[in-house]
Amino acid sequence: MAAAASMNLTFWVNGTQHEVQNPDPSMTLNEWLRSQRGLTGTKVMCGEGGCGCCVVMVTHPDPANGGTLSYTVNSCLCPLCSVEGWTITTVEGG
């Protein structure tokens, strides 16, 4: 019988490093920020990315040029499992 694969995420939120072991693949970044970190300034309203109240800034390495990319994402649509290596800034960290 094969052992279940484990996954560990490492990322930063408002300057603090976080490691999440075996994250729930159905959890969004918004859910994690609000329920696990208490960062309730990042709101959730429509859950479809249309209203913008869940927007956070992300920065991550850009393999194309060796630098970094920074842009905003709708955290209600962003799977938590996709944030490996990201630096995330919420309204509390801005």
Characterize the structure shown.
The protein has 1 helix and 5 strands. It has a 5-stranded mixed beta sheet with strand order 2-1-5-3-4, with no helix packed on it. It has a single domain (24-89), classed as Roll (Ubiquitin-like (UB roll)), CATH 3.10.20. It has one helix at residues 29-36; strands at residues 8-13, 16-21, 55-61, 68-74, 87-89. The mean pLDDT is 92. The termini are far apart. The chain has 94 residues and is mainly beta.
Topology:
Layout: E1 8-13, E2 16-21, H1 29-36, E3 55-61, E4 68-74, E5 87-89
Parallel strand pairs: 1-5
Antiparallel strand pairs: 1-2, 3-4, 3-5
Descriptors for this entry?
94 residues; mainly beta; Ubiquitin-like (UB roll); five-stranded mixed sheet; 9% helix; globular; 2Fe-2S_ferredoxin-type; NAD; metal-binding; 2 iron, 2 sulfur cluster binding
